[in-house]
Fold this sequence. Notes:
Number of domains: 3
Radius of gyration: 29 Å
Shape: flat
Mean pLDDT: 90
Strand order of the largest sheet: 3-4-5-6-2-1-7
Order of helices and strands: EEHEEEEHEHHHHHHEHEEHEHEEHHHH
Number of helices: 15
CATH topology of the largest domain: Rossmann fold
Bound molecules: guanosine-5'-diphosphate
Amino acid sequence: MLGDQETIAAISTAKGIGALSIVRISGSQTPEILKKSFVSGATTTVWESHRAHYGFWCDPQSKNKLDEVLMLYFSPGKGFTGEEAAEIICHGGIEVTSQVLSAVLSAGARLARPGEFTYRAVMNNKMDLAQAESVLEIIQARTPQAAALALKNIQGALSEKLSAFEKEIIFLLANLEASIDFTTEDIQPVKYSEMMKRLIPVIENVENLLKTYLPSRVTKFGLRTVLAGKPNGGKSSLLNALLGASRSIVDENPGTTRDTIEAEANLAGQFFCFVDTAGLRSATTKVEGHGVVRAYDEIKSADIIVYVVDGAQGLSNQDVEEIKKLEINRTLICFNKSDLNSNAIGALSLFGLENYNAIVSSAIAAQGIESLVNALLKLAQERSFGGEVDGAISTQRQKEGLEKTLLSLNEAKTSLAKDLSPDLISFSLREALSAIENTLGKNVSEDVMDRVFKEFCIGK
Ligand code: GDP
């Protein structure tokens, strides 16, 4: 990245008024900046690493004191970034913090780009890319489970698994290539059956790791639960009942919810992200039309769909048509407005839909909401979205990296099974190696790095 040699600085704490703020500095100019701006009672300017040093932060030119601070110093190779670095803990006012930062900048640093400290940590091998992604995740975590998952991955739980795959692939390649290189000499070529024995468990382990994506995504973002159905069935009212608050607009005129509305809720320890959608019908306006398209998109990608039927009207042909498109294991049919008609559910068997999970509710009378929650929890459990996800993959990038690895490993497996030439197998294994190394962040393009770090805030 351009400017990698420069010394960077930024405020690492959230903007706002607090007791303390932290201004971070990283790069080889750190000691110069400290000499110019940090005044303490100490006679030395050679700071001990990992120690808090008490003093004042001053304007580098006028030497006016700006704040009373604690300065943490990290010698080269020791801190978060792997570079010589310092963290200035100053008072948490907006004005005083920005004065300290300005002084650091005028003493020779430049403002860091988003995620640049973590980027440098990766470039200096303090962590790999998968760990860097977990740094972002622990900052963004909104549930204890998501924070725990991210912490484990910062500590290397996922990287260990990825590195183990890398090692195995290298071993297979080395054996195979040794036998290619020395075929003219009197060296025993590697037995394909032996290679197969070693390759199969790698493939299985990659497959298992890929399976952790869904639970870890749910841990991070909640179980995406879409409320769908014809207009006016009571989707918005049910969402509000579930949340215990008026989040979604309720109106007696059909077609009120035009865009999707998202709301998060923790129900009995399960983290849900509810999505209220536009009613499914031929839209009367262009805006509503967009809403209906979005609703179908949401249905497609939902973890769970709550299909709301207007119980007062009963199950219509359109309802039946829509429900038939939904997979049973991720659908719950909710016959709402049971205060007006509690028998509508009986119609399910008339249309061969009796195998679907279904409940009866009245959003208005606050009846059946508990059954709705219980049915949702049961569905969540059946789909095993919960549970421990130790060392799980958690980003789309990691998932794609593993999918590529798996594809190439399977190609190698097919070639081995068909007794094809070692060159061909070696090619597939090299592809797999490159994919797994990319997942760890080795030899990735600047473009990929940019994409990962643009998600970060400045100061991280
Ligand atoms: P949506 O279009 O599916 O989101 O439906 P809304 O939640 O906006 O509700 C449409 C209309 O039905 C509103 O007038 C609600 O007050 C009413 N409604 C919603 N749930 C119930 C219910 O359980 N019983 C009765 N009687 N009316 C309801």
